[in-house]
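Follow-up to my post from last week.
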Amino acid sequence: MQGAKLLEGRVVAAAVHERTRQRVDQLRRRGVEPAVIFFRVGEDPASELYVHMKKKRAKELGILSEVIALPGSTTERELLTRLEEKNRDSRIHGILVQMPLPRQIRVETVCQAIDPSKDIDGFHPINAGKLLLGDPSGFPPCTPAGICEIFRHYGLVTAGAEVVILGRSNIVGKPLAALLLAKGPQGDATVTVLHSQSRQIPEHCRRADFLIAALGRAEFVRGDMIKTGAVVVDVGVTRLPDPALPGESRIVGDVHFKEASQVAGWLTPNPGGVGPMTIAMLLANTVKAAECFAGCGEG
Ligand SMILES: Nc1nc(=O)c2c([nH]1)NC[C@@H]1CN(c3ccc(C(=O)N[C@@H](CCC(=O)O)C(=O)O)cc3)C=[N+]21
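User reply:
Got it. Predicted complex:
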């Protein structure tokens, strides 16, 4: 057995972007200019890169975007004041606050401060609740939604399958479990969520028809933890110094790619897998917010 087929997030993301661009054009014909605000607090090279990529993509799709970069010393109150301004601004359809945030700013407070109808990350408790209840009017979190979109694109059906998720974060593990439990061809799964206190992790993993690694530990998933022919999705992003290029870093996922590619049936590359999907779903959510605002939503 060798040579897992690649789940090319970059290709799927391009298809999502194309549909988003058509929706932007439709909105513009009706006089609505979709617009998004990206808040960034403090100096973090990775955050700067991510926000830059989001802004560049938004521009390509005809979505207006503005980056508000605040100093690392910004207080929670100051950030909330800036958020409230944008909540009230009817020209703005989407608001994102880039994570991670400096210590003095609480993530929960910030997530609750964003108007749920502009919460394109899907982090507000209202949107988290809608997700859990299967109410499609909310915003699904972008990384989990992107993973389901990859499955849909490649015709991979999770209905009835054993899905094992490694990691229980509020951003990936928990919302992904909710999406995969929902009714539908990219749902209806038997979901197991593993975490740092779980026992017999390799045994659980070996039972998985779909294995999603989102725990943030470099190359945690080895070949012997994967069922032959399984679908393996690597969400992890650990930056390690690149031995080949001194001073540079390289991305290492949560999956040992080489070993996994000998056993898995399908595998996401990393980079080029889940990452581009996160941005694609973020901009799709922005357009959904603008459509809802304009009263022409697709639901
Ligand atoms: N409020 C908030 N929402 C987010 O969605 C959010 C966030 N904060 N904080 C950080 C994480 C991370 N994230 C990524 C987006 C794109 C790539 C991506 O496109 N990565 C490229 C590689 C880029 C590179 O070279 O580093 C790839 O995987 O091919 C990765 C990671 C969004 N995040």
